[in-house]
Amino acid sequence: MARRVTSILDNLLGWGKIILPHSSLCYYPPQFVLRDPVVAGVKRALNSGYEVAVIAYTIKNHRELAAQLGEETRKHHKALKRHFKAVIEWEVEKKDMIVFHDYYSDSLSLFLRIDRNKHCVSEIETKMKKILREVESRIFLEYPTVQPIFDTGFIFIDKSVESVHEAVLKAHQQAFAMAEKRIQTEFNEMVYEINKIVSQQNIKILAQPIIDVATKEVRAWEMLTRGPEGTALESPLQLFSVARQTNMLYELEMIVLKKTLEQITLTGCSNDVFINFTPITLGNFRFVRDLKAMMKSYESIKPNQITLEITERDSIEGIDNFIYNIKVLRGMGIKIAVDDTGAGYASLNTICEIMPDVIKIDRSVIQNIDTNSVKESMLKGLLLIAREAGSIVIAEGIETEHEASVLKRNKVELAQGYFYARPGLLQTV
Questions:
Q1: Could you tell me which Pfam families the record lists for this protein (predicted)?
Q2: Whose CA is closest to 338, among 279, 423, 380, 287?
Q3: Alpha-carbon distance 156 to 171, whole Å?
Q4: C-alpha–C-alpha distance, residues 58 and 364, integer Å
Q5: Measured by CB atoms within 10 angstroms of the end CB, which terminus of the chain is less buried, N or C?
Q6: Cβ atoms within 10 A of the Cβ of 374, count?
Q7: Is residue 8 part of a domain?
Q8: What is the mean pLDDT of residues 102-125?
Q9: Residue 286 resides in a domain
Q10: Which residues, other chains included, contact 361 with Cβ-Cβ below 8 Å and sequence gap of 6+?
């Protein structure tokens, strides 16, 4: 069966390129005298509902390079600028980006437009690493005996700050703090903030219903996380990206689990509940042990009520305990869901590896599906994969009645999105 699913996946890989979005990039020097196009570009992106991530690259060994290169230092920096420009233009379609050809001293910053419905933190990290690997390989050909060592970091621009100018400056400074991890800088402040959130368990858990398309009845709930209200970390994209870069991701996701179990107990909810986890956490050698210990405190909750939803588009390759942990969890009666299906190869590959109980079809497939025959064909292909894998299908991000009608026509059983209900409090149905 797995071989047959693999064959179907191979035939559908070409479709992924149609629904994978391109992002806007620009880069800027660290002295950061803001120019109008930067502020205007960020403002347009934020007003259009996007997030904007500032990505920082800094050369860790710049002093050693300067001492080694001497008068050649300026030429080396110009070469780095040239290679970064070439790689970025190669990575992203020119029509989708604004490029500033500035490179200063030992640092470089990029601005990346993010659609939170289509992108995830792991994609940002993947793009950062891919650009860096290509630049390093190109500069090696030109300077084989002199290699820069880069540190990288990123942060999202805080949309709650009234002045876009101030928000960009602050995010730029924080991104370089993330990259350099300097003592007594914004990095330490962010470490302090995320540690405080974890120690105080200061997060809010919302619930969005998963609806039976035919009957409109609530069949399950997906639990969604928000950081402290009114802060820069209220956004889950910002919260989890900072947690990831400060090595607090596992602790944060275990708090999400605990608070979800508390809500199920307090409300007496008897529906299935979906809890999001990154592959990194699911593959942690402590995860199964910690989950079992936690569930002992909530004996009224049966394991078969819980579905662990694999979020992000991380590849599961190289995560030592991931497959083993999934088998143990299934043995306990816990169900496994794969999120973002159709948004890239990683989720499709994960389907082959684990044959999930639930496949969640990404919003990028569903959006405007009623006017796009290619997307409907993509949906049909994913439904075929689900049948071969023995998986239930849930369509995500339904916003219009027309989109819902396409799901009904294709016999999709379950769906969630603003058309049905916005996230709110967990309820007993």
A1: EAL
A2: 279
A3: 7
A4: 34
A5: N
A6: 11
A7: no
A8: 65
A9: yes
A10: 341, 342, 379, 382, 393, 394, 395, 396, 412
Let me know whether 171 and 214 are in one domain.
Answer: no
Residues 262, 150, single domain; the answer is: no
CA dihedral over 243, 244, 246, 247, signed as positive or negative: positive
The answer to whether residues 142 and 224 belong to one domain is no
105 and 220, same domain (yes or no): no
Judgement on whether residues 323 and 244 belong to the same structural domain of the protein: yes
SS (H, E, C) 357-380: CEEEECHHHHCCHHHCHHHHHHHH
Whole-model pTM over 0.85: no
Q: How confident is the model over 13-32, as a mean pLDDT?
A: 37
Distance set, CA 274 to CA 176, 220, 256, 264, 338 (Å): 36, 7, 11, 11, 11
The residues pairing with 429 across neighbouring beta strands, listed in sequence order, are none
Instruction: Retrieve residue 423's tokens.
Output: 């996230």
- How confident is the model over 391-406, as a mean pLDDT? 94
Rounded CA-CA distance 286/290 in Å is: 6
- Token pair recorded at residue 75: 């030429």
Tell me whether residue 321 is exposed, middle or buried, using C-beta atoms within 10 angstroms of its C-beta: 0 to 12, 13 to 18, 19 or more.
Answer: middle
For the ranges 31-35, 278-282, 347-351, the maximum mean pLDDT occurs at 278-282
Q: 87: domain CATH number?
A: 3.30.70.270
Decide if 385 contacts 379 (C-beta within 8 A).
no
Alpha-carbon span 294 to 88, nearest angstrom: 45
Residue 425 lies in a domain: no
Q: Does the pLDDT at position 71 exceed 60?
A: yes
The CA–CA distances, whole Å, from 186 to 175, 178, 182, 376 equal 9, 8, 8, 46
Say yes or no: 213 and 141 in one domain: no
Note whether residue 422 is domain-resident: no
Amino acid letter, 143: Y
Q: Which two tokens stand for residue 83?
A: 């290679």
pLDDT at 36 over 70: no
Q: What is the mean pLDDT of the chain?
A: 81
Of the residues 188, 212, 240, the one at which a domain ends: 188
d(CA 295, CA 5): 34
The whole-angstrom separation of Cα 271 and Cα 220 is 5
- Which amino acid, residue 94? K
Note whether 299 and 174 are same-domain residues.
no
Domain of residue 98, residue span: 21-188
Indicate the residue type of 80: L
